Amino acid sequence: MASSRVTGPSKTNASSGSSPAVVASHSSHQQFVNVFRHCQVEQWKRSSKVGDVTQLMDKTVKSTVHRIAGAVPAANYIQVPRTSSQSLALTGRYLYVLFRPLPNRFFVIHVDLVVAQEQIAVRVSLGNVFRAFKATHTWLQLPISCAGAHVSPDKITSASNAAPANPTRWTLMCVDCQQLLQTYLNRQFSHVKSIRICANQLVKNFFSSDFDYDHLALKSHSVSRKLRQAGERMPLPREMSFFLKSGDTWNKHYDYVRIPDLIQDTPAVQPQPGKLKSILPEEVLDIMDARGTRPVGVSTTADVRVFAEDGAKPHVTVHRHESKQAKETTGHDEVPARKQPTALKCLEPDPILHLKKVVGFGGGTNQEVCWSKDGVHVYYPCHAVVVVLDISTQQQYHLVGHSDKISCMAINYATTILATGQQGPMPAVRLWDLASQQCKAVFKAHHCGLHSLSMSYNGGMLCGVGRDAHHKQMVVVWNTEQASVDGRTEVIAQTSTDFDIRRMKIAAFDDTRMVSCGRENIRFWRVRNGELRSAPVNLGSHHGVVVNDVEFEGVTGRCLDDPCQQKIFACTSTGLVLQINYRQLKVERVFQVSSPATGPAAAGPNSGILSICVNQAFAATGSADGFLRLWPLDFSHVFLEAEHEASVSALSISADGLKVVCGTTGCQLGIINVESRTYKTLTRANTDSIQSAALSLDGKWLATGSRDGVVCVWDARSLQQLYTFLAPMDMPLKVAFHPRHQCIAVGYRSGFLRLYHTKATSVVAEHRCNSSPVTGVVFVPSGRRLIVSHQDGTLALLDCELQTLKVLRVLGNTTAKLPAETTTSSNSSPVGGDVAWEALSLSGDGRHVAFVGPSVHIVTTVDALTLDEVMHVDISSITAGSRPADALDSAVYVMYAAHCTGHLLVYTTRKRLLRLSASTGQLLSEMSSLHQGSCSALAVFHNAQLLVTAGDRQLRVWDYNMRLDVNYQSFLGHSEDTTKLLIAADNKTLYTCGDSVFLWESQARQPALCASDGLQHGRAMFTGPEHPRKPLSPQPLPASVETLADQLETSTIGEEDTATDGSQPVPIVHCKLNEEPPATNARGQHADEIHGASCSESDSRDSGDGVSSSDEASSECDSDFPVPVQMMERKKKSDQRLRPPSVVKHFVHKPAAHVSPTEKPFLPAGSHEALSLQHVIGFNSSGRGNLLWNPTAGQIAYSVDSVVILEDLSDGSQQFLRGHLTEVSTMCLRHDGKVLVSASGASGLENSRLCLWNTATFQCTKILALHERNIQAVRYSPDDSMLVSLGCYEEPLVVIWETQKYTPLTTANLGISMHDIVWDPFRPGELVSVGDQGQVHFWMIDGSGGGGDDGGDDDDETDSSNVSTALKVHSTLVPAVGQPATAVDGQQTSQMTCAVYATTQVLLVGSSTGVLSAWDTDKNTCFAQWQADHSELTYLFSNGRHLISSSVTGLLKKWSIEGLAELLESSADGSAPSSCQISVDDELAVDGAVVSAVFNADLSLGLVATSSSTVWCVNWTGMSTLRLLSGHSDQVTSVGTWPSSHSCFATSASDGCLRVWMTKERELLLKLYGDEEKACTSLAFGPDHAMPQKQQHSNIAILPTTTSSTAEEQSRDRSSEHKGRSGKNSNGAEQASNLQRDPLVSTREGSGNNDCDPSSIDSMPPCVCGYEDGSLRLFDLQQQHLQLKTSPHTSSVSCARMAADGSVIISGDVSGQLLISNSVTGMTVRRLTQHGSAPISDVDVAPANLAITAIPHRTGNVPSTAAAAAASAPLAGLWLAASVNGRISVWSCDWKRDRCDLIDWLTFPTPTENRLSGRWPHRMYDTSEYCSFPPTLARFSPTDGGLIIYTGFSLHNTLNIYSLNTKQVVKEISLSTWSSCMAVSSETGCCFLGSREGVIRCVSLATGAFQDTVTGCSGITSLSFVTPTDRHHNIAVESSILPSASVPHHRLISASSSGLFLWSVALQSV
User: Fold this and answer.
1) Residue 653 confidence (pLDDT)
2) 363: nearest Cα among 329, 396, 398, 405
């Protein structure tokens, strides 16, 4: 054997990095290497010995051996090679160790193996110091325990912490390095780097070889040679053999152990209990199960037995073969052959999960946080993970390796080494290299209670404080200088003490000096000669305090002139900071920086000052009252502080001193910037473990319920906390998201079920079935049904509406009754875990719900809509195969797997996972031993590729089909059991919830759900080269393109969708994909028949939520999908809420406060509408393409909110098309002008709508509802035979409709946002779309479409729905030439926004960067590009010779493009063009981004709409722009009318502007700019006689008449504004005349009408406005300037009115303040605070001409002196103020005498709990506690000043009439909805109430009769009357709601969103 050894000189191993090799092999196999001999261990040159290492002669083996002894194994060892920079480079697969453990002692052997792929070292530790197997990516711990010859395996596994007291024998241990790494880490072995043999053991030698030796084989050379040639096991070499006497057997005296042992080919023998046992992990059995090699009963080897009993840990016992049945090998025995193990198939990639983000701070400790030296990163613990957070990018890195919560942390000054310690017994300390983020060393010293670590300045010393075995404080000091090099640490000194130590710090100037603090002591420590000594500090009179923290004075370096002059600061529980003299060991100064704590908490750990941090400039303290304070070093004052909700327990100052990071006991971490004096929250989390979690359907939100009683809603992507809900004295157990609305259902321990609205942070509904804890909450996909289970076995079905929870069905004793502590305590569960499983599981199609019950042995599935039983399975004795069950099994948890599998997973108490068929209940497969303990959570990825399980504080990711040799990977991180696993819709993101929320990202390759052929480039996709226009034969569609001809369902719209004009119901088409027959229950009844009409709609929603499938699902995992996968992918993408595109061209739904009406509008029988819409003012600038022009009919069409307006340009009359539920996004007009199509977004459960209108009858003929999200564009084909609709970014669906019956021909979804789609006018059936990522999509319809025009015989036409139609697409990118730089992710930042066909072969495309590109439509290639603008292009129009482009800057350009043909020809033949004729001819500008545009055929005249809500007439012939329409671009906040004239009214908006309008002409008269950055919240006209007394000039802006740039152009446009509307409908100048409209009547210039005389502006009263910043402005409308500006309020003004005489301004704000200000000087005269802090919602002033009778003064709520004074004074005027809390104050005033007295106080009771959902629109107090309260509205009666009409939020929703004379309510009128605004008419005697549901209710004050008018808009924000000038019709109060032509029409103005609606009021007198 000597010839086979490698004894040559060592060489460097190239594969092991830069470390020199001590042993190297020159051949491919290392046959035999004697390590000790080659390294000359006796000379200690190539090896090292530390501690008690001696040589002696052993009598048993007859050889010299090394004896390693010592109390601490880590301090006594032999290491080969000598230094960690060297490497043994032993490439032999097998490593043999000849050793004997010393009895009654702990021993360990460390072997460093290098991995082939990453070239990293993995430490394998073998010994009896380990209790259980542990595995990380860099460390394997294999426990080996010594046992006597007669000790049973049960006693071995339950051994105590002490080493076994039994004799040991010499042992030969074989370590298969390659198999070891493959089994546990899925890595390939490279070589052995180093070996360390620690105390306590005897070691003879180490050997390395590529051969597997058999200790029982013959020692014949001839046999060895044959075995070597055959590749079989060989006998031991002489040097590896133990001494045996002649005739003696090897097994009688020695032991043999093999690690790992997976041999299956050697004969089995009967084993006996042995002396040495290797407790291997359960992974070994899992691998055997995967390969089908698991032994049962006896072992598969001659010397190993595997105990595989259920419920016990697997063991590998090495024995002595003393049984007589065992076959012993003698000198002539033959050895059976053994197969070499093969490579295992493992789960890939490895690792398959990547940890991206962890939520929270602390867990084990809240006192540790530190900075990196550069101030970029913050290091802090979060349970068992160290988080490295980049504070600028919020990106996290993680240091994972601890198995328990981190209890302490320390870092060196250079922030290169980090030390962390954990909780629990024998706590481990880890040293991390922060540069590589790798763990360099792991060591232990304390018995338990490790709570403080401190590292020296350079990181060479580490001090730790914990407890020893006697629970005394134990201080240990380690030498860590070599830890980063070779992982070696050394204990320098340690001691135990009785003094309390809470914190300990090493001095920066001396590594051997330390200071500690604790209860009643501060001590200085020093290490000298291996001993640790301490000296106390004389605290004097402060000896009884508790010192919480201690800190050295901050230094920038280690060098100090006199280290003994170092200052030390300590903080105490009494709020003191002690300055200590280091030399004299006494307190120098005492600073009282916080109030001392009192009571029992005064001595607690969370009292007084908890933490302190000091640098050279200042000190920071964190106190128990939640304040972080920054002080100068003399603590004279606080120069910066921040308040927190919890105690500040951790502090750290950055190296530059500009930032301070602080942590609190409430798990919050934040940074205060000293320079900018700002605070930023980094993270916050729950303070206790999470009980349940849920993910919203769109994947945007995550909800968690924790044991601290808090329900949190998080942003699912950033994991930032958004909302919190707290139910006092209750604990949330189950959480579920509503699939349709922004609501969450939470089940509590008290049995309550609460439905919360997330954004409104309010309780929507509440229900309590019983007092038993809730165990399960599940919504059906439609969201209209909710299923709840309770612990007592109750199962309830609830009707889930927005306002109520109605019980539909309750079943008792249905679910399994679990023990009470299962859901209320964390100490027990049915399987020994500490969590409560989810009791209910919903199937993927939403039809069935599964649960465990009625007993724990039964699994039941029920119908989700009826709770009728569908199937039940008895799993008590169910087993796989023919193996009988030896005991009854119980189900713990049931869960539906991915819908495509058709599987139902059941986890049992015997730790089995059963895979059942969801339709038949048949057992398909069984898994066991998922974890050593119980499994706490399960989840299956949506594509059924991976299974995730949680247990034993770790995650395991499994191959779902279990087809690999190693089917799982393990991941650490959680310090507690995981309670919930959630997988996002993207099938990549995994959320694990337990002690905190962890976000993981799957690295697995996503398998393609469907295959599609690649699309060819260019025109070849559509046509062949020989036949350019011949369509191809049908080809397979792309992945997300389907045909819908046979998949339609037509129904009639319900009553809620009835046409507004009272005509017949409009047919509405609901299109659903792959519909199946209705689901039936157990009795064969359809769900529709059971639930009626209401449930049929719910069923339709359920089937639309996901992909439905038959109940007879296949039981095989790899079976065919029940439905096309393309549709599943389209539905999944459509449900995801994405971020809106950054381009202006794309429609983004404007958030509105619209709420669906709770009941139907009321219209009395036989009566007509009291309100009829006459005019609409405004334009919806959020729409795109919502401006149309029909030159032939002389009409324009545009939208305001959800109303489409058809306006005749000749006379200005308007027709209104109302049928949409939300705002109109886009429109199009058929080429013949007979049909108008308008589109709107989704509303609640309703899909988006396409409404088809007949322009002649103004009726809606059909409603199409296929799109689930908003619609971006609709276009008619050139021949009107087809219609295309394009979805928005949330659902980029392209739908082609035929126009006979308007059924969809085909649909496609490419998965990316598209901004515009255009038909090819020259090639029928082709169109182009442009969108994100610089892509242009060319489409072609293959097949015949529908018919065309109206009329004709329908019987002769072909039904296009029966024709197979395919939609083909070719996508291409814009060339990079001429495009801007690419983004970081490599994608183009430019987006294609618009397109137009110029000629038959040229397509022009505009981009978001202003680049125009020209495309050859025959080749689908780009041949030219040029920069057309510096901003986004929105619209393009071309007639072949000219091109018009518009941009977001408002610039219109007219181009000459005749040179494109030459460019196209030159690009085809490759020649250079002779000249380029592309140039800009003209330019015009408008006042905002162009959002809609339309031009005539010759491009000479057109209409352009801008983002400023204006519509312009653009005349290229005259080079002029004329304003045609004006409106508000922002929310209208208030409407005010001129009391004495109906000619004008004013409006205010969120943009801060005041606008004055002419009533009849609907034209803008004045536009006055106040503060553009602050919203104008209220306005009111003053009295007519309140003329301006003082003029104050300011920079107020008057709206310009035109956008012309020169004075001549402005004069020309101004002169052309007053031309008449008459003119012929031709073209050119005549059309311009027909389009003209007065954009603005300048001062003293009128339009010549009778309604508004221009001279009337001279008598216009002033107008007062209140603003968001608390300021008041008084505008002089006559002089058109700002008369007065004052800022009396500190918060937003909510109401402002002028007194009846105009002398003062009465204003109220959101903080409850009422101020009286002088209208001339602006001085505040009075400040009234009677309303407290409740926001003022309304102020009203009785008119001066109103008859006010003598009113008795109330004395109950008014001071007696004030009442007496008020009674004696004459009554000059009245005014009132109302606040949101239901209080109204009435005041008597005489401003000339400076009198203002409170004469009455009205209060109506409000509910104790606000149950309203949502915030009220456009109220300035929506951020306060009253955000969901409706406003309190009050008005004086217009006919009697002694009556007050008011309504508000009270116990009963009523309209009350209160008499000031009788002091009582004289009339109550019930209301159905809460009112948002009110207006009272003096002539009609009626009150009009607006609501946020968009309904206006007209109420007769005399009779109480009422009538509702549905406006079809979002919430009504303001109402105001315009009174006719002719007032001879004095209508009595007793009026009824009946129209009469004899009464002049009054006008009511309502504001909704940005639109103004003028209504005609027609009421007849009695």
Assistant:
1) 92
2) 405
Distance from C-alpha of 715 to C-alpha of 1204, rounded to nearest angstrom: 37
Residue 179: the pLDDT is 86
Q: What single letter denotes the amino acid at residue 620?
A: A
Cβ-contact 1827, 1810 below 8 angstroms: no
Model-wide pTM > 0.70: no
Taking alpha carbons only, the member of 1557, 1548, 1544, 1620 closest to residue 1580 is 1548
Rounded to 10°, the helix 177-184/283-291 angle is: 90
Residue 676's CB is within 10 A of a number of other CB atoms, namely 10
Which region among 238-242, 1174-1178, 1588-1592, 1855-1859 has the lowest average model confidence (pLDDT)? 1588-1592
At residue 1688 the predicted structure's pLDDT band, cuts being 50, 70 and 90, is very high
Give the type of residue at 1070: H
Residue among 1399, 1403, 1396, 1392 at smallest CA distance from 1433: 1392
* Residues 6 or more apart in contact with residue 154 via CB below 8 angstroms: none
**Phi, psi (deg, nearest 5) at residue 837:** -70, 165
Q: Where are the alpha helices (DSSP H) in 269-338?
A: 283-291
747-765 as b/e: b if 16+ CB within 10 A: bbbbbbbbbbbbebebbbb
Question: Quick one: DSSP state of residue 177?
Answer: H
Closest residue by Cα to residue 341 from 277, 282, 219, 258: 258
Q: 1335, 1343, 1331: which is closest to 1367 by C-alpha?
A: 1343
Within 10 angstroms of residue 645's Cβ, the number of other Cβ atoms is: 10
**778 band by pLDDT with thresholds 50, 70 and 90:** very high
Report residue 1728 as tokens: 């009234």
* Over residues 1183-1187, mean pLDDT: 90
Q: How far apart are CA 1169 and CA 1909, in angstroms?
A: 8
Backbone angles phi, psi at 176, to 5 degrees: -85, 95
Task: Check residue 427 and report its DSSP letter.
Answer: -
> What mean pLDDT do residues 749-759 have?
88
Identify the pLDDT of residue 1838.
82
| CA distance linking residue 1893 with residue 1157, whole number of Å | 5
| Cβ(958)–Cβ(913) below 8 Å | no
1530, 1205 contact by CB (below 8 A): no
pLDDT value for 1650:
37
The C-alpha atoms of residue 568 and residue 363 are separated, in whole angstroms, by: 29
Indicate the pairing of strand 213-214 with strand 234-235. parallel
Phi, psi for residue 331 in degrees, rounded to 5: -70, -20
Average pLDDT over the chain, rounded to whole? 75
CA distance from start to end of the chain: 126
Peptide bond into 1324 cis (omega under 30): no
| CB 932, CB 952: distance < 8 Å | yes
Give the total residue count for the chain: 1966
For residue 1636, how many C-alpha atoms fall within 13 Å in the half-sphere facing its CB? 20
Q: In the 8-state DSSP scheme, what is residue 1078?
A: P
Residue 626 gets the label, from left (phi > 0), alpha (psi -120 to 50) or beta, of: left
User: What is the distance between the alpha carbons of residues 164 and 129, in angstroms, rounded to a whole number?
Assistant: 11
CA–CA gap between residue 1939 and residue 1167 (Å, rounded): 8
Asked if pLDDT for residue 1766 goes beyond 60, the answer is: no
pLDDT digits (tens, 9 = 90+) for 379-407: 999 989 999 999 888 899 899 988 889 99
* Residue labelled with tokens 């993995």: 122
Lowest average pLDDT, out of 907-911, 1327-1331, 1401-1405, 1589-1593, goes to 1589-1593
Residue ranges of alpha helices (H) inside 818-959 are 820-824
Exposure b/e, 848-858, CB count within 10 A at least 16 = b: bbbbbbbbbbb
Can you tell me the distance from the alpha carbon of 1683 to that of 1665, in angstroms, rounded to the nearest whole number? 12
Asked whether the CA dihedral 983, 984, 990, 991 is positive or negative, the reply is negative
800 φ/ψ sector (left φ>0, alpha ψ -120 to 50, else beta): beta
